[in-house]
Amino acid sequence: MDPVYYKILHVFALLVLTAWTFAAFANPAPETRKQTLIITGIASLLMLISGFGLVAKVYGGHFFGWMIVKVVCWLVFSALAGLAYRRPQLRGKFALLGFSVLLIALVMVYMKPF
Ligand code: HEM
Question: Which domain holds residue 76?
Answer without folding.
Answer: 3-111
